[in-house]
Design brief:
This protein has helices at residues 7-19, 24-32, 49-74, 90-96, 121-131, 147-158, 160-167, 219-222, 231-237, 244-255, 272-276; strands at residues 78-89, 102-109, 114-119, 175-182, 196-206, 209-218, 261-264, 294-298, 301-311, 314-322. By secondary structure, the protein is an alpha+beta fold. The strands form two sheets. It has a six-stranded antiparallel β-sheet. Strands 7-8-9-10 form a four-stranded antiparallel β-sheet, with no helix packed on it. Strand 5 and strand 6 form a beta hairpin. The protein is elongated, with a radius of gyration of 37 Å.
Length: 332
């Protein structure tokens, strides 16, 4: 990210240059020197900026779907939004979440591997309180879940994966399925500690209670579909495919379209003087012998050769030959 100086910092820099405290030549020299960037192998960069932007767009939709779902389930004000999408080692994610939290471990076929939806205890217990008839306030002291509470949490969050499936439809058809619910991060081992993950952080507000919902996606899980996270792929995949009924209706309209059919007797060249002197009874010689087939055009394209005649006292022309593609005169 490029640092942007404030107006005060700009004024201080100009003052230092004018007073001689800083030398402009030295600044230029430092700028021209080769800069070395430190690379931490424990924080391997596996997701490009394009991937991060695509994940952000996908999970902004996920946040909107979750807002609608939880608002209907809890019958209270719910607001969920994406605050950050970042990549970091799996071990760092485990150390950043509470020791007692709600970990919804799930799989999403056809992807191989496990992911986790981590819900801060404040949010989870506010949901429980609301589902059990309360006002949606999280308790001051977080205790272990009872069997009833565990069952309720599993049911509530099992249906959130429908929202995740809908959000990912522009990239791939997923079939998320809850595998387990844990409360202790130390008992959860998705990947090796140094494996890079994409962490999508969702700021969540339920009534007056706030907290975070984190979606952890290991790189090894979505590596097979990384190419589909490019901006170009998302743009083209979001184009709506026409329905079968629309295609058939279009075909019917094309079949009913009117096209002019022109049978040319021949051509002749006249000067302006000759044209102005034409009168009734004059004969104009054409460039075709009488026994030669006439050119038949559809629009401006030569398509057939045929001979003139009559059918039931009406002028007609019989098609004798079909012009193949590429024949000279086709693009006249």
């Amino acid at each position: 990210m490029v640092d942007v100086l404030s107006q005060g910092e700009i004024d201080a820099l100009l003052a230092a240059l004018s007073s001689g405290e800083m030398d402009a030549e030295e600044l230029k020299k430092e700028e021209s020197e080769k800069k070395v960037r430190i690379y931490d192998f424990k924080r391997a960069v596996r997701f490009s900026k394009d991937h991060i932007r695509s994940l952000t767009r996908i999970h902004e939709n996920f946040a909107r779907y979750l807002t609608t779902y939880f608002s209907a389930q809890l019958r209270t004000f719910v607001q969920i939004s994406v605050v950050q999408v970042e990549q970091l080692p799996y071990d760092e994610f485990i150390r950043s979440i509470p020791k007692m939290t709600i970990l919804n471990i799930f799989e999403a076929e056809p992807l191989e591997g496990r992911m986790v939806l981590e819900v801060h205890p404040n949010i989870a217990f506010a949901m429980l309180d609301r589902m059990l008839g309360g006002t949606g306030i999280a308790p001051s002291k977080i205790n272990a879940l009872t069997e009833i509470e565990t069952t309720i949490i599993e049911r509530v969050f099992s249906r959130t994966f429908e929202s995740l499936q809908e959000a990912w439809k522009t990239v791939i058809d997923l079939s998320p399925r809850m595998e387990a619910l844990e409360t202790n991060p130390q008992f959860m081992s998705l990947v090796s500690p140094n494996e890079t993950i994409a962490l999508i952080s969702l700021s969540t507000k339920i009534g007056d209670t706030t907290g975070m919902i984190n979606l952890c996606i290991p790189h090894v899980v979505i590596e097979p579909i990384m190419s589909k996270l490019s901006a170009n792929h998302l743009f083209f995949s979001q184009k709506k495919e026409p329905a079968v009924e629309e295609v058939e209706a279009l075909k019917q309209r094309v079949h009913r379209a009117q096209l002019p059919v022109i049978a040319e007797l021949g051509e002749s060249g006249l000067s302006i003087q000759e044209f102005l002197s034409l009168s009734v009874g004059d004969v104009i010689s054409l460039n075709k012998p009488i026994q030669q087939d006439l050119s038949i055009k559809i629009g401006n394209q030569l398509k057939f050769y045929g001979s003139p005649g009559t059918v039931k006292d009406r002028v007609a022309i019989q098609i004798n030959e079909i012009v193949s593609e590429g024949v000279e005169g086709l693009d006249e």
